[in-house]
Amino acid sequence: MRHLIPEFDRLKARFPEGFESSLLLPCVRRIQEDRGFVADSDIDGLVEYLGVPRIQIEEVLSYYTQFRRAPVGRWHVQCCRNITCSMRGAERLIDRLAQRLGVAPGQTTTDGRFTLSTVECLGSCGTAPVVMINEKYHENVNIEALETLLTGLD
Amino acid sequence: MPGTPLLMTFPVTATSHLLEDYRARGGYVTLGKVLAGMRPEEVTKEVAAAGLLGHGGAAFSAGRKWGVVHLDDGQQHFLCANADEGEPGTFKDRWILEHAPHLLIESMLIASFALQVRHAFVYIRGEFDLPYRRLAAAVEEAYAAGYLGAPDPGTGFTCDLVVYRGAGSYVCGEASGLLSSLEGKRGYPRNRPPRLTVRGLYQRPTVINNVETLANVTGIIAHGAAEYRKVGTAKSPGTQLVSISGHIARPGVYEVEYGYPLTRFLFEDCGGMLPGHTLKCIVPGGISTKVLTAAECEGVTYDHASLEAAGSSLGSGGMIVIAEGTCMVRLLQVLLRFYHHESCGQCTPCREGMGWMHRIIDRIVAGKGRAEDIEQLYAISMMNDGTTICGMGDAAGYATVGILNKYRDEFIHWIEHGSSRCDGRLEATAHA
E strand or H helix at B283, and its extent? Predict the structure, then answer.
């Protein structure tokens, strides 16, 4: 993470004095974008850079669903299964995804290309069902659109 | 258009979210007016006189909330916009973040002046990608233009704005959970008192308002409280951005004037049900509000008092429309799985209770329901009510009781027959 410190310093400049602890979430997010997950050495680096207790970092990492300590597939396919998405076909999409990728939700394909996850409301109910692939929302997804999407991923 | 709009007043184009377009619509003129000629307490007074209510779910008076902050207490004050939109069925703030980010920034600057805030924050849910990118770009535009970060030549007022991204936690939408998260910790809600306007972020007085609540501030100051009160009802002035989804022909975000007839909104403005379907019930304002059956929707107007009189509440404006034939047992299963997943685990009644309820409903759906399961769900709902730090446990109970009261027969059927009376469907299509 050390190469990210200049970026962290710029971020810090916008916060009030004494807000080092607040930098934890944005720093973890940036590290994860960079490495794909948070490694032990990143935690060491954050303890040193932010001066926050190690346990606080461990607590944050284990609490928030978006943070991870292990890599995921190249394409992280997250399908919402909350009420509206389920009412507009998400349950069939999840079944199709599991069948097509050959993994259950929460698992990664053996070639490391895909991780399939189910998630709760993504705030996209008006264009349900929604599938989030890496950072991007794909809305109004039906089985045909899903096929096209998957074919486009290497 | 369901009534007079206050926020959706311009055509959305490829550039309507940018600073240049916002200024062409009169953007940042109101901020100039405030800095040139108003005192902070006058701004708060105007917002209070307008009767602006919280638009995130609790409908608490924004002016009263602001009024708690003492401007001369010698402390740092903070302002935070709650953009952690995560109540299932709710996606209205996304509209503001994507299409009117400068309206939010101008409003936050006016609010920051009123509350003498030097550092303001927008806490935005981690999954929002486009809304984040739009808002972050608008913040950079506002810095470059000198609205943010630079002192106002007349008053010396300076404000910095940080867009803070959450990382996946429903409870962080609760104001004190949000602040815990903003302090770089788990999003654990805190006991009140003290109120957050007394001891909030890092124990300093902090005002947290929903994005839509804040977005209305610029209009209120620009045109005055009296003009604002001309829209809506006496008890609920203004409008609500309603995000409507489910088995409805035209889902999306609509700005609804408070007092507008509910069924007219559903059947005229939103095009009615999906073809071939009839209305069973609606969730009026996010899944934590009690369902209203089709019959109960008759005669209701879209405002706080009318929805409460009907036995529910306006909540977050996240309306879910449910067609006849939808299995309410499965619906409750999805809901309880969600609450169980999102319980932060801090309070025993919620941490354990959500798990119990989730396991009971899973057991019923698996065909192994017991005669006493319905009473158990009631008992756990009652037990959670008022026994937890935040309202999540209560809300899960209300939603559960609402469904059980009105669709008890469907639960009895599944327990007795081991299968759904409505073929277990949530999806309203032919191929289920």
Answer: strand B279-283
**Nearest residue to B262 (alpha-carbon basis) of B309, B226, B298:** B298
Q: Are B340 and B357 in contact (CB under 8 A)?
A: yes
Q: pLDDT of A18-40, one tens digit each? A: 999 999 999 999 999 999 999 99
ipTM (interface predicted TM): 0.96
Q: Is B171 on the interface with A (CB under 8 A)?
A: no
Q: Which of A60, A87, A132 sits opposite B184 (nearest CB)?
A: A60
Helix H or strand E encompassing A133: strand A131-133
Q: Answer yes or no: is pLDDT of B163 > 80.
A: yes
Chain A positions touching B335 (Cβ under 8 A) are 83
Flag whether the pTM goes above 0.90. Answer: yes
Measure the CA–CA gap between B238 and B339, rounded to whole angstroms: 31
| DSSP per position, B333-386 | HHHHHHHHHH--S-SHHHHHHHHHHHHHHHHIIIII--TTHHHHHHHHHHHHTT
Could you say which residues from 318 to 347 on chain B have a Cβ atom under 8 Å away from some Cβ of chain A?
318, 320, 322, 326, 330-331, 334-335, 338, 341-342, 344
Taking the C-alpha atoms of B415, B416, B422 and B423 in order, what is their torsion angle to the nearest 10 degrees?
90
Encode pLDDT of B52-79 as tens digits: 999 999 999 999 999 999 999 999 999 9
